[in-house]
Amino acid sequence: MGTETETLLERLRGVTVPTIGHFLEDGFLDPGITRLAGSGTVVGPARTVRIAGNDAIAMNHAILALERGEILVVSMSGDHRHAPLGAVTAAAIVARGGLGVVVDGVVTDVADLRASGLTVHARGTACLTTKRHYGTDSEQGAPVECGGVAVATGDLVLASDDGVASLTREAAAGVVRLAEESDAAEPGLLRRIRTGEPLEGLLAH
């Protein structure tokens, strides 16, 4: 990963994801995908996998391809019943140096996920899991749709308590300065509101 990308990632970690939502309309995953484990804002390149036919082997292949600092983005091909992520897969992702997982579906072993140190976003939890089918319809590394957003391997994923965004590097680079300036101005604005300054002079209208 180049120095320019590393600098961009570091700057993105310093802004709040909702602030980016003030300036962009696209790239924000369905709010039904919420944080189940982790804290703070976690930012990293996406590593994508599309799992078809509730095939657990596809998840294993994606984990083996994972590079340090990446966030695994999992499309379940519309399956919101079978969990592809649990205690063992989370431990394997940590061992590979992954930062987190975003699943357009459900996960399991939530207590283990919370203890793993990963940031995990999903639609909920379930006891029904994927199986070792060794199918051929899944694919890893190819563009996927996750939470209504097109995500490609290498796009930048921003995950926080408020939700998840996936941006191309160009989109992220174009918005980061605006987000930094907005975040820097917000404490002063809040202080002026809380001290009773007339709102007519503070809110756009």
Walk me through this protein's architecture.
With 205 residues, the protein is an alpha/beta fold. It is 33% helix and 24% strand. It is built from 6 helices and 12 strands. The chain has helices at residues 3-13, 17-20, 56-65, 87-95, 110-116, 169-194; strands at 34-37, 42-50, 71-75, 100-104, 106-107, 119-122, 124-125, 139-140, 144-146, 149-151, 156-160, 163-167. Strands 1, 2, 3, 4, 6, 8, 11 and 12 form an 8-stranded mixed beta sheet that branches. Strand 9 (144-146) and strand 10 form a beta hairpin. Helix 4 packs parallel to helix 5 (110-116). The mean pLDDT is 95.
Q: How do the strands and helices of this protein lay out in sequence?
A:
Blueprint: H1 3-13, H2 17-20, E1 34-37, E2 42-50, H3 56-65, E3 71-75, H4 87-95, E4 100-104, E5 106-107, H5 110-116, E6 119-122, E7 124-125, E8 139-140, E9 144-146, E10 149-151, E11 156-160, E12 163-167, H6 169-194
Parallel strand pairs: 2-3, 3-4, 4-6, 5-7
Antiparallel strand pairs: 1-6, 2-8, 2-11, 9-10, 11-12
Helix pairs in contact: 1-6, 4-5
